[in-house]
């Protein structure tokens, strides 16, 4: 367990309220998720698609625990309020170069809160005719959204706190923390 001094050194003096998931717990759960994904896709082409920036650490750890062939790409979605059409599609600021057609897609997200980001992306990605489309979220604030069947792989159910670390930020800070903390 990290001591307060270790946390402060990493955050530049900003203390966190508590460590919600420590490094060991995250590593153990990511390994299990890797096994779940390996078992879920016995055949076919698998493309793991990371939603930037929040998924970058999680995706890096996750794909090394998946024991079958796969490809990796990323996407960057426009922020809320911009680029939404009546069809629910979303503009992509970085569009994956890899073809999605006919492939099993696992979209990797850091945290599901209201689910709006994912709902908008699902329309855009489904239009590209993948063989299947599932979401793998490190954290899921299940209390904040209606059930989403596409969220097939979940690391942890998250409290309705503001969490940082392991990719999650607050105003671009704290992404590098090796643990997940409650900031407030
Ligand atoms: P949603 O569209 O409401 O599901 O929000 C999802 C996005 O909001 C995530 O990809 C994060 O970028 C951000 N977000 C939601 N909750 C948190 C949090 O607790 N910490 C950091 N970012 C969050």
Question: Could you give a short description of this structure?
Answer:
The protein has helices spanning 4-11, 23-40, 56-63, 116-126; strands at 18-21, 46-51, 71-77, 92-94, 104-112, 132-140, 151-157, 163-164, 180-182.
Provide a descriptive summary of the structure in words:
The protein has four helices and nine strands; from the N terminus they run αβαβαβββαββββ. With 184 residues, the chain is of the alpha/beta class. It has a single domain, classed as Rossmann fold, CATH 3.40.50. The strands form two sheets. The protein has a six-stranded mixed beta sheet with strand order 4-3-2-5-6-7, with helices on both faces. It has a three-stranded antiparallel beta sheet with strand order 1-9-8. α2 (23-40) crosses α3 (56-63). The protein is globular. It binds inosinic acid. Inosinic acid is lined by residues 54, 109-117, 162-164, 168. The site of inosinic acid has 14 residues, from β5, α4 and β8.
Helices and strands, with pairings:
Blueprint: H1 4-11, E1 18-21, H2 23-40, E2 46-51, H3 56-63, E3 71-77, E4 92-94, E5 104-112, H4 116-126, E6 132-140, E7 151-157, E8 163-164, E9 180-182
Parallel strand pairs: 2-3, 2-5, 5-6, 6-7
Antiparallel strand pairs: 1-9, 3-4, 8-9
Helix pairs in contact: 2-3
Residues 54, 109-117, 162-164, 168 line the site of inosinic acid.
